[in-house]
Amino acid sequence: MKLLIILLSSFVLIACNTAQKPNNNSMSFAERFRDHSAIKSPEEIATHKFGSYENPVRVDMPVGEREYLAKLTCSDGSRIAYRRGGSAGVGPYGNMLDVYNVSCFIDSTLKEFQIYMDMYHPKHEENKAVEGFIFSGK
């Protein structure tokens, strides 16, 4: 009987201890890897040019990046061309950024731009154009 009580007590202690630990499965992918020391205030982020490293376009995962770029046109209304340049380090929201190389033909001259994106903003749909572009919203 004593052994049974000891075993049950041990089981209860283990169960209580396990229940108090945070469950990483309930955290979002972004939250698990966010660098909290890099996070800036919204006011500080807003002082920088939209679409820059210091104020990236916020989107929801790679599909959000492509959807945002599909809604941008060059300043003359023509289509943009783009390609992903790669990861660009940790941005002001504490997440890894992607950089896109975007090209436009304006007055028969090829103009190239870089747009930084933070894809770790679930359900966020940006509706603002990066300076020098038009946002069609389609």
Structural summary, described in words:
This protein has 138 residues and is of the alpha+beta class. It has a domain of 76 residues. Helix content is 28%, strand content 28%. It is built from four helices and six strands, in the order αααβαβββββ. Strands 1-5-4-3 form a four-stranded mixed sheet, with helices on one face. Strand 3 and strand 4 form a beta hairpin. The radius of gyration is 23 Å and the shape is elongated. About 6% of the residues have low confidence.
Work out the helicity level: 25-40%
Task: Please trace the helix and strand order, writing H or E for each element.
Answer: HHHEHEEEEE
Question: What is the beta-strand fraction?
Answer: 25-35%
Largest beta-sheet details: 4 strands, mixed
Walk across the major sheet and give the strand order: 1-5-4-3
Please provide the count of β strands.
6
Structural class: alpha+beta
Q: Quick one: overall form?
A: elongated
Q: What is the averaged pLDDT score?
A: 84
